[in-house]
Amino acid sequence: MNIEELKQQFVNKYGKGEVSVYFSPGRVNLIGEHTDYNGGFVFPCALTFGTYCLIRKNDKKSFHFASLNVENEADITIDQLTEPVGNEWFNYPLGVIAQFVKKGKTPDIGADLLFWGNVPNGAGLSSSAALEMVTGVAINDIYGYAEERVELVKMGQMAEHEFAGVHCGIMDQFASGMAHKDHALFLNCDTLDYEQVPVKLDGVKIVIGNTNSPHKLDSGMYNKRVAECKAAVKAIQPFKSIKQLGELSWEDFLEVQDKIEDETVRKRARHVISEIKRTRDAVDALKAGKLEKFGQLMNGSHDSLRDDYEVTGNELDTMVEEARKIDGVIGSRMTGGGFGGSTVSLVKDEAVDAFIEQVGRNYEARTGLKPEFYVAEVGEGSHKVC
After folding, report:
1. Other beta carbons within 10 Å of 73
2. Which residues belong to any copy of the GHMP kinase C-terminal domain (predicted)?
3. Residue 91 belongs to a domain
4. DSSP string, 118-139
5. Is 67 annotated as belonging to a binding site?
6. So what's the pLDDT on residue 69?
7. Closest Cα to residue 13, out of 112, 83, 93?
8. How many domains does the chain have?
């Protein structure tokens, strides 16, 4: 759907008048998984598909939320902006507006909002972060609140925590809000220091494989991993003064791993700390033009997520196994929270068609699920369209 069509949909619903349009992208994380809430490094890039928000102030004391992707709508009065509403999609934008209110920035008048997104839901490409960030950027702009972009990122993360019940790290919102076209973000999730690293993939494409086995971060498994990581920190603290796993080097971990008596908790920590090292090494490899090395580290990332962190599952493992059989695949791994969702693969140009055909056929034969593939372009972060 193009911008003019979206504007017409807005007019059909809310009536004629000026309308502002904003966009925030989904993201794919090239490497660095389940490190963000442990204060480690991640390496995501924005995609060219995402979520649009069309918005206009109204003459009422309420906000109206509607989406072209789902049927249910909501009308929330200004004095109810800080309360979640059941398990509804509009809790994501509502949760962001609540953060403004908590900062003492309560709107004096309401607005009409219409959303449309082309990020596949449940694919692990951060449709929720795109929805949060597009709301934050739009509200910040039309109400003149002048919050810095990094502050909007933090507000998006808090909306996820408080209104969706997912104790996510900050990577998804940061990538959606801060990324630049043709660059990936090398982000320290503890300090929020970041570097925009050019993604130069001469003769190579990023191919995302949607398993169509939707991931469910709010199923409790994600929050369980967060708790296990905290348990690892607690076991290590008598021997090393740390607040989160990201403070440990790989060498530090080898010294203290035996102090973590629970074998499962030790495995979780081993993944996090080895993944942080892999991410650093992968960024160095990309800068040096060593794509084969980058691909090997992607493979190592998936294997660690499968064996030590146990967040992959049959569908993701099957798709990665089939991907690695194809000549021209440099590396392949799960991306996102896991428990379903998507894979990301680096595939040589001449192998892309064969990859999509063969991996798709073999994956469906083994799982009974029909996958979808996207040859990804590295897009721009959140911005006003018009």
Report:
1. 14
2. 283-364
3. yes
4. -SPTTSSS-HHHHHHHHHHHHH
5. yes
6. 94
7. 112
8. 1
Q: Which residues carry out catalysis?
A: 172
Whether pLDDT at 312 is above 80: yes
- Three-state secondary-structure class, residue 34: coil
pTM of the model: 0.91
Edge-to-edge, what's the strand order for the sheet holding 372-376?
329-335, 342-348, 204-210, 372-376
Question: Does 33 carry a binding-site annotation?
Answer: yes
Residues 273-287: tens digit of each pLDDT: 999 999 999 999 999
Residue 336: the pLDDT is: 87
Is the predicted pLDDT of residue 217 greater than 60, yes or no? no
Largest CA distance in the chain: 67
Indicate the DSSP class of residue 7: H
Q: Annotated binding residue at 151? A: no
Q: Work out the angle between the directed axes of helices 91-102 and 149-159 (0-180°, nearest 10).
A: 120
pLDDT, position 215:
59
- Ranges assigned E (strand) in 80-171: 111-117
Mean pLDDT on 27-35: 95
126 carries a ligand binding annotation = yes
Q: Please report the pLDDT score of residue 169 as a whole number.
A: 83
Residue 219 pLDDT > 70, yes or no?
no
Binding residue per annotation — 127? yes
Q: Is residue 372 part of a domain?
A: no
Query: What is the domain range of residue 88?
Result: 3-198+380-384
Q: Is 136 annotated as a binding residue?
A: no
Return the C-alpha torsion angle 221, 222, 223, 228, nearest 10. 80
Is residue 181 a part of any domain in this protein?
A: yes
- By C-alpha distance, which of 156, 135, 182, 186 is closest to 29? 186
In a domain, 291, yes or no: no
Looking from the CA of 190 toward its CB, the CA atoms found within 13 Å total 13
350 Cβ neighbours under 8 A, 6+ residues apart: 328
110-147 confidence digits (pLDDT tens):
999 999 999 877 677 778 999 999 999 999 999 999 99
Residue 143, token pair as written in the block: 């109400």
| 342 is annotated as contributing to ligand binding | no
